[in-house]
Structure formats: structure tokens, C-alpha cells
Amino acid sequence: MSDTLKKSIKLTILLFLAAALVLLLMDKPRFALGLVVSSAWSIINFVLLIKILEIAILHRNKEKLTLILLVKFPLLYLAGFFILTSKFFPAYSLVLGLGSILLIAGGNAIWPKHT
Fold it and tell me: Which of 8, 13, 42, 111 has the most CB atoms within 10 Å of its CB?
């Protein structure tokens, strides 16, 4: 995995944990929990997708690919289904969390780098 992607994942975790802490201080625990759960789901999904692409492109370790596919598609997507269909989390918190890694990775990739 490239340094840009690792940096994006770390930045996403940091930003959304800080946002959840602020939301907890504002007495919005369900919104904070929805944000954390959906951003964690999004990060896990993103990392597994990157691993699948790396294995497929480099033609390495097909047993590991099978394991990742078995975890990603039935388990992770079933968990995502239950997260989305539960009425516990506000919809806006789920939308913000699910798009988090894509927004931060995209911004991190195109933002001018300062050395």
C-alpha cells in the first residue's frame, strides 16, 4: 500500500474520532457512534479492496485473495446492510462516515504536496 493511502487512512481515523468526540461533547451520542461505525466500515472496505487489487495485479498469494474475498463480500457487506437498515444511527452520520475515506484519499492525492 502506498504512503499516500496509509496517510489517508490515518488522517481519516484521526479526523472522524475527533469529530465523534466533539459530537459526544455536544450530547449527540447516536450521531457520533454512527459516524465512527460507518467510517470504520468504510476504511475496512477500502483496505480490503486495495489488498484485492494488489493481489490481482501482482498475481501473488491466491489463498490470501480467497480469504479476503470471503471476509469482504459476505461478512463485511452483511454488516453494512445491518448498519444501514438499523434505525439507530442518523442517516447523515452514516453518509458522512461512508464517504469519509474516499473524500480524504481523493483530497490527499490531488492536494499540492509541500516538502
Answer: 8
**Where are the chain's structural domains?**
3-110
Q: Give tens-digit pLDDT for 6-35.
A: 999 999 999 999 999 999 999 999 999 999
| DSSP characters over the chain | --HHHHHHHHHHHHHHHHHHHHHHHTT-HHHHHHHHHHHHHHHHHHHHHHHHHHHHHHT--HHHHHHHHHIIIIIIHHHHHHHHH-SSS-HHHHHHHHTHHHHHHHHHHHSPP--
With cell 465523534, the residue in question is: 20
Q: Which pTM does this prediction carry?
A: 0.90
